[in-house]
Amino acid sequence: MDIFDKIKKNFGPLGQYGGDAFGYYMFPELEGELGSHMKFRGEEMLVWSLNSYLGLANHPDVRKADADAAKEWGLAYPMGARMMSGQTKYHVQLEEELASFVKKESAYLLNFGYQGMVSIIDALIDRNDVVVYDSESHACIIDGLRMHLGKRFVYPHNNIENCEKQLQRATRLAEKTGGGILLITEGVFGMAGDLGNLKALAELKKKYNFRMLVDDAHGFGTMGETGYGTGEHYGVQDDIDVYFSTFAKAMAGIGAFVAADAEIIDYLRYNMRSQIFAKSLPMPIVIGSLKRLDMLRNEPEHKEKLWKIVNALQGGLRDLGFSLGVTESCVTPVFLNGTVEEATQITHDLRSNYKIFTSIVIYPVVPKGTILIRIIPTAAHSMEDVEYTLKAFKEVREKLEAGKYDKTQVAKF
Question: What is d(CA 156, CA 105) in angstroms, rounded to the nearest whole number?
């Protein structure tokens, strides 16, 4: 069979909706200044779909730092990979400041979060090593594990009892292969907003010999007293052997980092193929990230405002009887019962009539018959935004329960 013929017959679980969804439900174009209010198809929207948790994406100080760095350095500087010709004192400074902030000996900058995680896993383990991981791990973790030539065991999401069973299996196998064990989980699970049970996993380290890698993309900057993540929230940062996060959420930028003991970071620096063979992060991104990190550390008002909005929104939704699942983070999932077609009707109603832009998640990401409206509160939102959204969601649910949304037709736009 011709490869292209095969593709044309099966566009995948999401691609099958591409003809009806492109430009509206998928790949929508938001315009205007980044923030809580933007334009979609020429109309102003209240936007709950941007991961700029601390509201830094369009902060004037951040914009100035980015612009000044771009003017001084351009986007090409430095040229080449870090190892060859792309190293600068600012890259090193950012790594040192990140390591200090997350209470680790050393850190290493990564060009992208997704690419970085795949490469971390590839570098850390070989065919003799065994991996134990949470079933709801992010796609970057799953794709990294697909490259792993050894054995891996998955445990049901946050099921510590089953995780221990998988660790027992992994221990027996590692004794035969002579390898080690790597446990992978997340600090904050980005779809449902619940936390990885890092405290219980840390306790298991007293019984089993394994290392723990934590993806804290949604926890960095939002969780813990000072904001350095879910490990701080639980008081177990020392038990996290390899800490990973991106700049794409609280830092509202591009790039990522991994932090660990200095010896481990040195190893990764010389063995992560995605960094060895990729151009160094451009200087405006590095300088801009230094500014963002400085604000994250020294201006707690951004995190305080974020959680004021989060608590008001989540509290209001729960008071109205909405199910938010088990979220303990800023991620605010609203679960409804309905068909894929009803999900499109709800989306269209919210955007066209209420001027609210949110992300709606359907099967296969969530079970059939479930609609997940994923709301991302930020420090840029206002209490008026919250009050308006609560009113709108109450009315939308009433319409859904009254059968006013079409169960059989995708809403046209």
Answer: 32
